[in-house]
Amino acid sequence: MKSDIDALMHAKNFDALVVIGDAQHNPPMFYLTGGGHVNNAILVKQYGQEPVLFCNDMEREEAARSGLKVRCFGEFPYDDLLKEANDDPILAGAMRLKNMFTDLGLVHGTVSLYGQTEFGSSFAVFSLLQKIMPELSFIGEPRDTSLFMKAMETKDESEVARIRQMGRITTKVVGQVANFLTDCEVDKDEILLQEDGSQLTIGDVKGKITLWLAESGVENPHGTIFSIGHDAGVPHSTGKPNDLVKLGQTIVFDIFPCEAGGGYHYDFTRTWCLGYAPPAALNLYQQVYAVYQKVMENLDLNAPYKDYQRLTCEMYEVNGHPTPMSHKAPIEGYVHSLGHGVGLNIHERPWSGLTADDDNRLAVGVVATIEPGLYYPDENLGVRLEDTLWVRPDGKFEILAEYPLDLVLPMKKWKK
Amino acid sequence: MKSDIDALMHAKNFDALVVIGDAQHNPPMFYLTGGGHVNNAILVKQYGQEPVLFCNDMEREEAARSGLKVRCFGEFPYDDLLKEANDDPILAGAMRLKNMFTDLGLVHGTVSLYGQTEFGSSFAVFSLLQKIMPELSFIGEPRDTSLFMKAMETKDESEVARIRQMGRITTKVVGQVANFLTDCEVDKDEILLQEDGSQLTIGDVKGKITLWLAESGVENPHGTIFSIGHDAGVPHSTGKPNDLVKLGQTIVFDIFPCEAGGGYHYDFTRTWCLGYAPPAALNLYQQVYAVYQKVMENLDLNAPYKDYQRLTCEMYEVNGHPTPMSHKAPIEGYVHSLGHGVGLNIHERPWSGLTADDDNRLAVGVVATIEPGLYYPDENLGVRLEDTLWVRPDGKFEILAEYPLDLVLPMKKWKK
């Protein structure tokens, strides 16, 4: 949690954290500022001290809403620095940082860097800054084990409330999609039809999803997976816009919007067969559902997350499916890991992969997905079921937004 | 233009460009790949050669749609590298890059880095890569003068067609907003009313804008400025959600959406007074309009963009307004520069600031805004008029999406 940051800094021997970039769509900056229209800012958090947010003078009021101590770049006039730097903007940028850090008394120790930003110019500025401030050691951490990922791994109740609200909106939109699809007429080739009589495409459905998410006031920056047939069997395929929506095919619908301004996410997947399910689809679904149920029933407080990945692999292996336990990078069968944390990043700690370190546990405050799946693209089959759970202070696991798990969605105007 | 990249590399003495990050919402990567769901990719473009796009194995098909030569990270097995690196992910990442570059024959020379990405981990990896590949020199450029900014400064006809289409959508939505507002009932305090009789807020209007943009299939990642009263006088204020929409106040409406997936933008501003304009608002508007007209009439092919910033300042100074010509960072009067290029970045070259270098010219292929304004927040007044223009091959300047410039929008159900 956010309150762990100083302890994490101490454990990692960091004297300061520096976060750069915008306050929106930039998880570490959003985490500390709460977002808002503050662009190209620089946040400095020294060990044991409150963060200081440096921003453009014009964005001072917006920055102040963070509740942090705010200072303006105007205190360090860039034009003067540029003259001093013989018109070298990289050197001027490094000198400005040096002045800011020195002003804060940050002159020696280890400074760990974070933030979503344009890489090239920042790389040049910080490489030069390292040379002109040799008493500071500028480092970067591997993303998956970084301080922010560790802090964000457990959520406080206000964060959970926001993710839960995103879950409500997500499942409301999923319900709208289900209603829309099952209301459609169907032609003789079992293709769904739009009101104007034309055949319904994946692109049409995605347009509706985008619209309904926007109506609910949330953003969908990573898009939505709504894939049918072959594509349903390829977990990273988002679905081809021109593919037609047809009865009796597995449709993987994975939706992961976030709060407007780049805040908290929800992550949710259902697999649907419209009208009816062919035996092969039903069979695959039942195996995924059995794993989903088994994992849900066995979740234990503080257990290593990857224990459930192992359980999942074992159950699938018994039925002859390739899994990451037996294959290096399987492309059919069970091809991914069981889940991931969800927060300001759509994918964050804890990790459930078999090689994840043991620190990735289902501790109180974790918000994470359970998403077993099975994929056979050559047979035009894919099934995944995913819910996002919160590990509550009482040690119980709670699905943050309940939604039926049914495979078959009966068509209202069609009968076999 | 994109076809200038090799010439620009030659001029800057770059042996290779390396772009990292996602293909979406990452201008240099989008520029070379055309976007799509390709995440955490690495693009290598050597001088005189076609780019090579390295991607996750699962995203190979999506990456192939770029038309570029695609290779998969799986060729450089990460687990083996991690073992070799004694479980140090930063070293393993650097070794993987070394193997990739070596495989391409990129072993000496200057490599310039680009791309929107998580800074800390990339900084660590490339700092280490610099040490293990000392024959390569890894550099970053200042953003405003970088190779991509220079290449993107002029657009080819296919890019202009996409920006024009964004202009059509933008002005269509602006028309929807105007119709919606002027259809409203008005209460005795001159506040607009919603259909349910409640008072209309800025937040309500922004909700409609978001929705109508989504309906048109475009994204709005930077939000919209719709600000009234005091906030209209603060160019960076986006408008407070709870402010009420009232007659007779200047409303600055600045809208700058982009194609879905982080593509080309449009940028457009109108200032409206609903129902009627008080004399002070009308007076300010007329001065801004006079500058707008004067600049439009005087645009010359290949002229330095900043010449028109100077013209604007001179015209405003005559009327006693502070401007950047006479004041360092004015907070009232004319407080910004006249415009900027528009493309994959909402703000890009050419720049019009008085200190911009002379290379920022209105050359054929430039797409840029003209946006004079005047701001008096303490008087609750702000006016800005902005259109996006294209410098055509015949040397003429064309507004890409025409829309009336009127200040006063008459209310259909209200009379003074």
In brief:
The structure is a homodimer of 416-residue chains. With 416 residues, chain A is α+β, with helices and mostly antiparallel strands.
Architecture blueprint of SSEs:
The structure is a homodimer of 416-residue chains.
Chain A: H1 5-12, E1 16-21, H2 27-33, E2 41-46, E3 52-55, H3 60-64, E4 69-72, H4 78-84, H5 89-103, E5 109-114, E6 116-118, H6 119-132, E7 136-140, H7 147-152, H8 157-182, E8 185-186, E9 192-193, H9 202-215, E10 218-219, E11 225-228, E12 250-255, E13 258-259, E14 268-274, H10 279-298, H11 306-318, E15 340-341, E16 348-351, E17 367-370, E18 373-376, E19 381-384, E20 387-391, E21 397-399, E22 408-409
Parallel strand pairs in A: 1-5, 3-4, 5-7, 14-22
Antiparallel strand pairs in A: 1-2, 2-3, 8-9, 10-13, 11-12, 12-14, 15-16, 17-20, 18-19, 20-21
Can you give a write-up of this model?
- Two copies of one chain form a homodimer.
- With 416 residues, chain A is of the alpha+beta class.
- Chain A folds into two domains: 149 residues, 3-Layer(aba) Sandwich (Creatine Amidinohydrolase, Chain A, domain 1); 257 residues, Alpha-Beta Complex (Creatine Amidinohydrolase), CATH 3.90.230.
- Chain A contains eleven helices and 22 strands.
- A six-stranded mixed beta sheet of chain A has the order 4-3-2-1-5-7. A four-stranded mixed beta sheet of chain A has the order 11-12-14-22, with helices on one face.
- In chain A, a hairpin with a 5-residue loop joins strand 8 and strand 9.
- In chain A, helix 4 packs across helix 5.
- The model of chain A has no long low-confidence stretch (mean pLDDT 95).
- Chains A and B meet through helix 5, strand 5, strand 6, helix 6 and strand 7 of A and helix 5, strand 5, strand 6, helix 6 and strand 7 of B.
